[in-house]
Amino acid sequence: MSTQLLRIKMVLIGEGAVGKTSIARAYLGQAFTSGYKATIGADFYVKRDVIEDAVMGKVNCEFLIWDLAGQVQFTQVRPLYYRGARAAIAVFDITRKETFYALPSWIHEFWKNAGGVWPLILVGNKADLRGQRECVPQSVGMLYAQKLSQIIGVEVPYVETSALTGYNIRDAFHKLVLVLLAYYRKKFLQRMQK
């Protein structure tokens, strides 16, 4: 296991009420709270974890998680929170297709304010409601993830989660680390070939 600590400033982005805060809280091991309470500006969390990477083995990670408010009134302050972010989890609510269609503007905002095309993963939250309501098909999320993969140059996974049940929450954060490591390996190889 690597003794070095990989510190990752990452942002949770997406429309209001898609479950960004609930995803962060579930990853931290906190209980799900029903009822919607909007994030004001941003919330900040720290979580240490060990991720298994095929190349590096076990990697000690420290996530600096910035949970950004999704409401329009916070558009002017959000750029401050992106500074130094090197990864993102772009979240939509699978039961609200408009939150999926808003993702391109969120991703553009992240890349513009973080100063580059940084890696991310795509998360469709509220998977516990699939089959109970009309939902964005998994194939649509996977197709968009493939398009993002072409832009970034590394595979962008599509993960469906449920902050209510904890389904795939830890997996989403682990996949984000793997994407980030693949991104840096690719950049390193490109520099070596010059």
What attributes does this structure have?
194 residues; alpha/beta; Rossmann fold; 6-stranded mixed β-sheet; 36% helix
Structure in a nutshell:
This protein is of the alpha/beta class and 194 residues long. The chain has six helices and six strands.
What does this molecule look like?
With 194 residues, the chain is an alpha/beta fold. The two termini are 31 Å apart. The relative contact order is 0.19. The chain has a single domain, classed as 3-Layer(aba) Sandwich (Rossmann fold). Strands 2-3-1-4-5-6 form a 6-stranded mixed beta sheet, sandwiched between helices. The longest helix is centred in the C-terminal third of the chain and has 24 residues. The chain is 36% helix and 25% strand.
Main β-sheet, in a few words? 6 strands, mixed
Look at the structure and give the CATH class. Answer: Alpha Beta
- The CATH architecture category equals 3-Layer(aba) Sandwich
Whole-number tally of structural domains: 1
Mean pLDDT: 92
Low confidence ranges: none
What is the general shape? globular
Helix content: 25-40%
Strand order of the largest sheet: 2-3-1-4-5-6
CATH superfamily: P-loop containing nucleotide triphosphate hydrolases
Distance between the termini: 31 Å
Compute the number of strand runs.
6
CATH overall fold name: Rossmann fold
> Using only CA atoms, what is the Rg?
16 Å
Structural class: alpha/beta
Strand content: 25-35%
Total DSSP helices: 6
H/E element string?
EHEEHEHHEHEH
